[in-house]
Amino acid sequence: MFESVMGVLQSAAQSLRIAAELLGWSTLMFGSLALLVKGREALEALRRAAKELRVNLAIHFLDALFVAPVLAILTTLIRLGVNHYSLALIDGGLWSWLGTPATFVMAVFVGDFISYWRHRLEHTRWLWPAHAIHHSDTEVTWLTLSRFHPLNRLLTTGVDVGLLALLGFPDWALIGNVILRHYYGEFIHADLPWMYGPVRAVFVSPVMHRWHHARDVTGAGSNFATVFSVFDRAFGTYYVPGLCTVPLGVTDDMGKGTLGQLLYPFVAWGAALRPRAKKTAPADNPQADVV
To answer: Read out DSSP for the chain?
Structure first.
């Protein structure tokens, strides 16, 4: 019993250590970039974001402890299931013939196409409550990428990894796609005034994605891709009128702190499923219509 408890504690400590190390590298990389580009303004932005950063950090480490292990199991089960039951729609020999560089580019490109449509679905009525946690950050920084509800994380992994596995991509390509999308995702969430010039026709820029996080304005329903802006352009959801200087966040009442964020989807779904009370007719006019 004691050994089992110690094993669990050691595993938890290792997960936290890895999460802290990855966080440290990202902080060094994106913090240095912000200081280089924005100077003192970056320090002022950090001060404004302090409250949101606490929530992001809490969710980051909770994810490392409880969510990441589940996602690792889910990913393994998906890969084993596709291989065991021969569910792949494309023979793996095609990717071997294309070679490593071309296969990796295709995995990222197709993966972004899949995530574009999955992301659009997350902005629909029933999936939005779980995704709204990510959008509730009013001071979007690279650490906003850590702010995802566990249910949203399960959906993202299941759909993205599952469909790529069904297309026969090798395991290394699946892992490489996840790593590249993660760090590029942190980059486009960073508060950087970069629009990419002509290159914006192909790639998502930090400014483009910032418009996606705009609160209650036209741009909030646009810019769903993570890496390739070509998908938003092709499907009519591209919106970059200039630098994004409007308020960020959501209009939903998300509750207080980390716990409020994690409970919000269940509160929202419960309210949506609860039958609406019927209005009764006034006592002095019993024949009035009831609506």
So the answer is: -HHHHHHHHHHHHHHHHHHHHHHHHHHHHHHHHHHHHHTHHHHHHHHHTHHHHHHHHHHHHHIIIIIHHHHHHHHHHHHHHHHHTT--SS-HHHHHHH-HHHHHHHHHHHHHHHHHHHHHHHTSTTTHHHHHHHHT-SS--GGGGG---HHHHHHHHHHHHHHHHHTT--HHHHHHHHHHHHHHHHHHHS------GGGGGTB--HHHHHHHTBSSSGGGG----SSBTHHHHHTT-----SS--S-BS-SS---SHHHHHHHHHHHHHHHHHSPPPPPPPPTT-TTSPP-
Decide if 285 is inside a domain: no
State the pTM of this model: 0.90
Number of domains within the chain:
1
Write out pLDDT tens, residues 40-80: 898 898 899 998 999 999 999 999 999 999 999 999 999 99
Domain enclosing residue 68, as ranges: 12-273
